[in-house]
Model the fold of this input.
Amino acid sequence: MYKIAIVDDDESSVNLIKSMILRFGRERNTEFSVAAYDNAVGFVEKYRAGYDIVFMDIMMPDMDGMTAAAKLREADGSVLLVFITNMVQYAAQGYDVGAFGFLVKPVTYESIALKLIKAIERLRSDTSKAIAIGSKTTFRKVRIADIFYVEIRGHTLVWHTADGIFTNTGSLRRVCEQLGENFAFCNQCYLVNLAHCDELKRTEVTVGGEKLQISRYKKAEFLRQLNKYLNDMS
Done:
């Protein structure tokens, strides 16, 4: 199931777009969950990452779509964002907030179907390249390529990423299984993305600008995995 949010203060527009999405789902045997928000302020204030696609009108009262999109990106860097507008001059600004595309009003079924086809292709290709970091109150999708390293503190996982630092609870060994062979332990507390190893010294490795200790017990295996990764990349 793909989760979609529509953010638009025009109820008739929301109903039309929702009906088109559900029609597409019936025709393509694809399941969608569609939520509607009639103002951008409420949407971004209560936002929890978990949507796959957000359709957002640009011209809304209280908070316009571009401002809302910037706030959305602070909480979710991976959701596909599609603007709905009759003002094509906003297109250039849209790319500043990572817009996936635009739908020009009046929206037609053909235009939204084409956008959904492309969005689903993107989502399917990215499925194995992102991981969900969740807790009881938050949920966030992070690209695996953007993870520098994962640290364990007691029962707390600390995710050091290009988008910031996030925490949840879990097992570092389980995370290693999820992230795959391009990650390796430099000691029992740090699981390192080998793609972000910038410098290696006798007892430490620099990852994402931070120096991490390499333990005596993990050193041989860590170096073996790092050398294999570098050879595969060459």
User: Anything to note?
Assistant: The longest strand covers residues 147-153. The radius of gyration is 21 Å. The chain has a mean pLDDT of 85.
